[in-house]
Amino acid sequence: MAGGETRSVAAPGAPVAAVLRLDGRDARAAGAAALILANPDVRNSRDLMPETVLPELGGMLGGFAVPGGSSTQALVPGTPLRLEPGGVLAATAKRGRPILRDASELPAEEAVESPRIAIEAITPAVDDGRFPAKRIVGEVVAVEADIFTDGHGKLNAALLWRAADETEWREAPMTLVSNDRWSATFPLERLGRHVFAVEGWIDVFAAFRDELGKKHTAGVPVHLELEEGRRLVAAAADRAGSDIPGLAALAARLLDAADAERLALLLAPDTAAMMASADDRPHRLRSAPMPVEAERTAARFASWYEIFPRSQSGDPKRHGTFDDVIGQLSRIRAMGFDVLYFPPIHPIGRKNRKGRNNTLTPGPDDPGSPYAIGSEDGGHEALHPELGSLEDFERLRQAAADQGLELAMDFAIQCSPDHPWLREHPEWFDWRPDGTIKYAENPPKKYEDIVNVDFYAEGAMPSLWIALRDSVLFWAERGIRTFRVDNPHTKPLPFWEWMIAEVKARFPDTIFLSEAFTRPKVMYRLAKVGYSQSYTYFTWRNTKAEMQEYLTELTTTAPKEFFRPHFFVNTPDINPKFLQTSSRPGHLIRAALAATLSGLWGVYNGFELCEATPVAPGKEEYLDSEKYEIRAWDHDRPGNIVAEITRLNAIRRENPALHSHLGVTFHNAFNDSILYFGKATPDRSNCLLVAVSMDPFNAQEASFEVPLWEWGLPDHASIEAEDLMRGNRLTFAGKMQHLRLDPADLPFAIWRLRPTGTPFGA
């Protein structure tokens, strides 16, 4: 390799020195090369990662190998090469053979027909349109896309949309925002699935007018251009015929007009409008349709209250009935809740029935867990006899509706060993060789009173799937439109996508809440396949940093288009450790966070009473849990937070900024224990500031910034505020303010803002 180049290809100070010798002056044209590798450390072995040096060799040389060495001594990206202490290796290579593609992959005949226009980065789009973006009826969908082409030609674009049951597209012009980004909007006027598409084309006449105007302004002769313009108008008139009034007359007038008149006519706005209407849209490209699901308001904004109907008699020795629940409706509605949710209300099995506090030795009067569904009285389409009949249930449903409460039912796909399906459809279960079925587990929790169906058992496809769908339809036909689904992440995703679509095809107003405390991507996939709402990690986000990070993820990244977080503060299964130790202030903190950060929040009965005694230290379960016994509740218990919850729900109803988890902006409060944020509607007609102490034990103080800049105000300006919890009004004079939040009083504050001089309610 005499006369060739020699140079180092390792970075200065690299663990292994690497020197390249070529048979020429340029690695790009070299026919052969040698790579000398040296370990300068005489005490220790060192590894060379080939990818640290190979890209520096020009990319035209073939695989380097050590002469006479084994295949393991070849330099392969991703495979370390070990050099012994003080070791030197020489690897050689010849000019490599590049990968050649078949030139016939795209014949010229197809290439000339390929789109000349590019449409990219369409929003909203979930997985490139595989799943629908979620919105609410009455909203406007803002659509954006990158649309561009080659050269200096002018583009035009349109947004097309229709309801899924319509055949004709509606169209709206798109506007160029900047940097090839186009936008338009369309309204959601009906409940259900919509689709939209983006269309772009080269606007020949617009390009012509732009060039004509520039040349005329610059004093360039335009006689030829005027004739070109006349011909463009004449061709458009021929295409349009009589469909565009005035276009044929314009073409005739241009034929005999002098240059000055032609110029004026061709540059006239009316001409541009007529030519746009007659445009045949050359090089037109339309995107694939993108789905949008328009759901009812309750899919995004609702306040849930959960009770066990059997505990509503007021007597722990008497099983409650649906009539007893009717007696509680006014109390629940008075707190401002609008959804009343029941755990399963179906017959409860006796085999392996659980006793109090989840023991395996029930007494003769223990009612068992309602999640052990099924007995001789029926399964998922039956009611527990002690609660009442279907007629009683319908009377309850109507009484709730009269109070402004919607009933939500639990859909739990699990069976007690007594469920009729085990006898009638054994093919739906996975039986062991000894004739038994493994009971359900969610380590460390065990559910000896529950067995699970097997969705992919040979005899279950599709009969089990159809039966489960029909169970949901059974209750939907009886007026239930909201279902909380137990552990959906343990059931097949294809089942949910099919089942939810089947139900919504018949009852488009149905809402499904996913009770999935699992990995984020699984939770998000459940939302994509059809769930309107989901439980979240809110329960375990207890610090300022944790809450900001989580809300930022939910509101600024991809899930914002399809995932609606439901902030339940507690559940019959989850007694959060934060609540166990923080007493009344902790319950106030979690209520304020849930009620203001999300449009969806929920309370399990007892939270308002600050009930938080765990079954054992370190366990996130309630002592004397209603899952295993009938309770009687003193709703006037001293120290309750009923009044505060009532006020929070009233604030939520009155302020549209709180009707979604979106629209949150975190602001500076200079204390790591105070979470401080703003919520505003898109048009900023409703703007709130919220400060919540994350410390239930100590008073916290902070200087904080009032975001005057959001109203275009200087730092020294004033803005009027209304304290929505205390009912007084104040003025924030200047950007920097100070607050003190005392857990013994009220550990949060909510202010509604208006620029000074603007009346509240305006």
Would you kindly provide a written description of the structure presented here, covering whatever features stand out?
With 762 residues, the protein is α+β, with helices and mostly antiparallel strands. The protein is built from 16 helices and 34 strands. Helix 9 (390-403) links the parallel strand 18 (339-342) and strand 19. The chain is globular and about 95 Å long. It starts with 5 loop residues before the first strand and ends in a 7-residue tail after the last strand.
Give the helices and strands, then pairings.
Layout: E1 6-8, E2 17-22, E3 32-38, E4 46-48, E5 81-83, E6 88-94, H1 108-111, E7 118-123, E8 133-136, E9 140-148, E10 155-163, E11 170-173, E12 175-178, E13 181-187, E14 192-202, H2 204-217, H3 223-240, H4 247-256, H5 259-267, H6 269-277, E15 285-286, E16 290-295, E17 302-306, H7 322-326, H8 329-334, E18 339-342, H9 390-403, E19 406-411, H10 420-424, E20 439-442, E21 445-451, H11 463-476, E22 482-486, H12 493-506, E23 511-515, H13 520-529, E24 533-534, H14 544-556, E25 566-568, H15 577-597, E26 600-604, H16 642-654, E27 664-666, E28 674-680, E29 687-693, E30 700-705, E31 718-723, E32 729-733, E33 736-741, E34 748-755
Parallel strand pairs: 8-16, 17-18, 17-26, 18-19, 19-22, 22-23, 23-24, 25-26
Antiparallel strand pairs: 1-2, 2-3, 3-6, 4-5, 7-9, 9-13, 10-11, 10-14, 12-13, 14-15, 14-16, 20-21, 27-28, 28-29, 29-34, 30-33, 31-32, 31-34
Helix pairs in contact: 2-3, 3-4, 3-5, 11-12, 15-16
